């Protein structure tokens, strides 16, 4: 889904919901593109990945703390912590979804974008274990206040196309805070 070091357009679209000083978790941070993007905006980022190289790429960046952890085989490294925002892209480990929702602070925002069934026609991943079923991400976020959900094909040309689901959802229903409900554009 990404061929550049730029933050995902989906993440950029909803970044206004994460104010400077917020505590953000970049789960399975990979190259660190979202950690860098938010750190540059004054957000305090906890980036986690099982690849030590990810930590090396983020070393020395202001506002970024890296944790080396096996998210699928080890203990949850953030037990008891709550985050104002959680960002996940191109990663799916279903047992973690409920943990992520529980780790959102009141009115915290979940920005999630990953591959869905049907992606095999465009390339990898093609293993169903790593592809969301139709409507699965939306169903797993039941109880959150969904600002936006998309389920479809992205990318301008075949080399960049992917079948994805993505969501922007808030913990609780902050109806008294119009700024938190502001839709971009």
Summarize the structure.
By secondary structure, the chain is α/β, with parallel strands linked by helices. The protein is 17% helix and 30% strand. The model has no long low-confidence stretch (mean pLDDT 89).
Q: Structural class, from secondary structure content?
A: alpha/beta
Q: Can you tell me the residue ranges where pLDDT is under 50 for at least 5 consecutive residues?
A: none
For the termini, the CA-CA separation is 23 Å
Quaternary state, please? single chain
Order of helical and strand elements = HEHEHEEHEHEE
**Please, how many helices?**
5
Task: Give a short account of the largest sheet.
Answer: 7 strands, mixed
Rg: 16 Å
Percent strand equals: 25-35%
Q: In one word, what is the shape?
A: globular
- Helicity range of the residues? 10-25%
Give the number of DSSP strands: 7
Strands of the largest sheet, in order across it?
3-2-1-4-5-7-6
Mean pLDDT: 89
Structure report:
- The chain is of the alpha/beta class and 185 residues long.
- It has helices spanning 9-14, 33-39, 52-58, 97-102, 136-140; strands at 23-27, 44-49, 64-68, 83-89, 104-115, 144-154, 162-171.
- Strands 3-2-1-4-5-7-6 form a seven-stranded mixed beta sheet.
- Helix 2 links the parallel strand 1 and strand 2 (44-49).
- The relative contact order is 0.17.
